[in-house]
Amino acid sequence: MLTQERYQTILQILNEKNTVTVQELTKLLNTSESTIRRDLTTLDEMGKLNKVFGGATSIHQLSGVYEPDVESRESVMLEEKKAIAIYCAKLINDTDFVYIDAGTTTDLLTDYITNKNATYVTNGITHAKKLIRKGLTTYTIAGRIKPATEAIVGTEGLRSLKTYNFTKSFMGTNGIEINAGFTTPDMDEGLIKEEVIKRSYMSFVLADNTKFRKVFPITFADIKDCCIITDKLPYKEFSEKTIIKEVMK
Questions:
Q1: Which runs of consecutive H residues, i.e. helices, occur in the chain?
Q2: CATH number reported for the structural domain that contains residue 44 in this entry
Q3: Which domain holds residue 47?
Q4: Of 82, 208, 224, 228, which one's alpha carbon is 20 to 30 angstroms from that of 109?
């Protein structure tokens, strides 16, 4: 079997099963494990699949609606998140009207903000507390507090956002994929994020490298709608779709 034929067969199998092992492909394609591993590496680099230990998964495999709480996410990729937050804090100017989305990386952003002349709006409870303690002009949107993420969401929040026009917004995301865009598990949070981005002159998505090639049920923005600030870009094809800044390159 020719190389391109193997590639096509592997991708067809993944479309049907979502996951496949090296051993399964070795038997199905009647070839060696070393050949299959090379094929998976090449297809992963091409952005056609996700190579994992012992096999591969489809890049279109949908993540579930489960979302860990804030406490369990705070220490994950901490140094990477800090580097992203420090860089973003330097983007805030005196005349900016800034929106800060709820999330663990954006929460770290509030630790490094020093500009006291800008005005800040947030839907994050802990974010608002930190900004107030720094003596910064701070507003929260109206709405219901979601316990898992400590974010303010709901129709009241959407209505209050319609009175704002932001110069910059700093957003969180659960997943980034070229076709699906920026995604989240929660409909209410997705609607808030979508409205903020529509009302922002510039939007920055703060995302560590683990967020790429993940897809959750709700898309809140196309990949071209926001600049991505990440620690290190794991898949170069994303840089062809939007502006991406790597802060730990």
A1: 3-17, 22-29, 33-45, 70-73, 78-89, 104-112, 125-133, 155-161, 187-198
A2: 1.10.10.10
A3: 3-58
A4: 224
